[in-house]
Amino acid sequence: MSHAHTDAVAASAIRKVAIRLVPFVALMFFINYLDRTAISFAAPNGMNSDLALSAAQFGFASGIFFLGYILLEVPSNMALHRFGARKWLARIMVSWGVVALLFTWVDSAVELYALRFALGVAEAGFFPGAILFLSLWVPARYRSRILALFYLAQPLTTVLGAPLAASLIQHDGFFFGLAGWRFMFFGVAIPAIVMGIVAWFYLVDRPADAKWLTDAEKRWLTEALERESREKTGNDHGRHGLKVAFTNGRVWTLALIYFGFIYGLYALAFFLPTIIGGFEAQFGTRFDLMQKGLITAIPYLPAAIVLYLWSRDATRRGVRTWHVALPAFTGAVSVPLALYMDSPAATVAVITVTACSIFAALPNFWTLPTRFLDGAAAAAGVALINTIGNMAGFSSSYVTGALHDLTGGYTVPMFVVGGFMLMSGVLMLAISRAPRTGTGVRMAHDGAQAH
């Protein structure tokens, strides 16, 4: 087969994966993220007052989700590796959809805690499973592009989800007399159940089974992925085993880097609507429910654009250290800076810089673990990194709420967020300079020189 023909087959295969799989999995992620963050829209719009929640109690309810998630994260990804993504991701979606539906009738803080914990258990393994699934479909040189397209769903969840949630909340008493925030929970839960059923029939576990690929495309993808697997394994067969995920210093360093980004991500996701709700007391400005939803969405549309352009550059150059470290440092400065702005517009503008920083880094970050992990080790390693990150999801929610109650404002909590993002940047610089035989990760690929 000529080089030109091979390139044509490769381009066609990657294009089909990008069209047939990525939008569908991204839609699953959209629903996933909307369901787990729906509580942030409900809180300032009746839930906190109806359930008599303090900021610390709301933070605990937001964060306890991640305790349930953490418990089953690695086992869930190992089950996906064993049973296949199609069955496992479909099962996860239906499970969390059923639990999410029950939020419609929650009546106390204790019930809210229990349901948030159960939602975490039900969702466990979805995100790392989706990352692993897409990574197993494309060679490393294409992953930053594919994962960027997938990751667009996360900021777009808020761009589209905030106005959607506001619209549902406005239908107070519309559905069997339910309060608006309860109807919102109902409205965002049903799509998860429907998509889970569809996923069972739509997803395909591996290129060789895809009827929408030609024989040449199947052969090219299969051979390219098998060749990468052999190269990653090399003479170190431990890289192919489960043990490496828990003993490799690179995995733990990447987990701490991810922790810092996720701490920032969920501090914004859960408390941004509440911060915007406080603009009236802080600046004397009044916004109706839909306006608050639209303002909440503002930072995330630029974030989606920056995510795409930043990852496009990373695909062209090869992922470099600064593709992850620079956004971390930018976010570390902008998070606390937002609190010193003198108008709602300036505050939202600086928060937008923070959102852009976090989302620019994340898809490029997720290309790193599968550069040196394969097979069961990749399944466990990706899940372990995500598990540590989700510990940040719990701690950022609870600590932010508790520090707010203790200090009477968000200044101290946001400086803590900035500190963790600074940690991510420093560790990213450190891991790129460490020897690859230790904790180092090669930061460029496909002929590009390492940074």
Can you characterise this structure?
- There is one protein chain.
- By secondary structure, the protein is mainly alpha-helical.
- The protein has one domain (14-433): Growth Hormone, Chain: A.
- The chain is 76% helix and 0% strand.
- The chain has helices spanning 3-20, 22-42, 47-50, 55-83, 85-102, 109-123, 126-135, 143-151, 153-169, 180-202, 215-233, 243-247, 249-277, 279-283, 289-297, 300-317, 321-337, 344-365, 375-407, 411-433.
- Helix 4 packs antiparallel against helix 19 (375-407), helix 9 crosses helix 10 and helix 17 (321-337) runs antiparallel to helix 20.
- The chain is globular, with a radius of gyration of 22 Å.
Task: Set out the fold topology.
Elements: H1 3-20, H2 22-42, H3 47-50, H4 55-83, H5 85-102, H6 109-123, H7 126-135, H8 143-151, H9 153-169, H10 180-202, H11 215-233, H12 243-247, H13 249-277, H14 279-283, H15 289-297, H16 300-317, H17 321-337, H18 344-365, H19 375-407, H20 411-433
